[in-house]
Amino acid sequence: MKAMRKTTGTLFALLTLVTLLLQGCYSFSGASIPPHLNTVAVPLFDDTSQAGIAEYREYITRSLVNKIESQSTLSIEADPTRADSVLKGAIVAYSDEPSQLGSVTERAVTNRITIVLQAEFNDQVKNTTLFSQTFVGFADYQVGSYTKQQEAIRNAYNMALDDLFNRMISNW
After folding, report:
1. How far apart are CA 121 and CA 167, in angstroms?
2. Is 141 helix (H, G, I), strand (E, B) or coil?
3. CB atoms within 10 A of CB 148
4. What is the DSSP letter of 87?
């Protein structure tokens, strides 16, 4: 029993030491943004979803700009013709469909909001496309609650935006 405690204590001490030594050795900041790119323009996202949710174009664009400014090395350039890179995007699909049915009534208990964004990130210095990809976000909400529905819409957009932003700045 004493030998087991001693081994556990030694293992814990070793793990703590390794953790302290490796702290700060790895960073995601700017992992795959080419070094010659210092500025990015993010024009207002389009809405090609035909779902009548155009009011979210500005929310998505502003959220992405805020994320870029606060979490990357890129600076925002308002004029796409003067930016080193341009990130163009569009809302291409939006759905609000049942995700869970009640066992007794077979009516929807929860609905799922699904948002699909299309984005293209272009390097204007080297005249290349860094990526062109779709990003999906989703969130469930309790049927009958407008407040929860609006929250689910924001959560779905934020999920897709997080994936888009991570694709911009990292290799994975």
Report:
1. 10
2. strand
3. 16
4. E
Dig out the tokens for 169 from the structure.
Answer: 């700045």
CB 12 within 8 A of CB 40: no
Task: Say how far apart CA 85 and CA 100 lie, in whole Å.
Answer: 42
pTM for the model: 0.76
Q: How many residues belong to the chain? A: 172
* Alpha-carbon span 64 to 148, nearest angstrom: 23
Strands (E), the chain: 39-41, 46-47, 75-76, 85-101, 108-123, 128-142
Q: Coil, strand or helix: which one is 139?
A: strand
Place of tokens 């911009």: 168
Residue 15 is encoded by which pair of tokens? 């793990």
Task: Please list the pLDDT of the chain residue by residue as tens digits (172 residues).
Answer: 554 444 444 444 444 433 433 444 334 444 578 899 999 999 999 999 988 777 889 999 999 999 999 999 999 999 999 999 999 999 999 999 998 776 676 777 899 999 999 999 999 999 999 999 999 999 999 998 999 999 999 999 999 999 999 999 885 4
Helix, strand or coil, per DSSP, at residue 15? helix
Number of H helices, E strands in the chain: 3, 6
Amino acid identity of residue 110, one-letter, is: T
User: Which tokens belong to 66?
Assistant: 């805020």
| Angle CA 97–117–70, to nearest 5 | 120
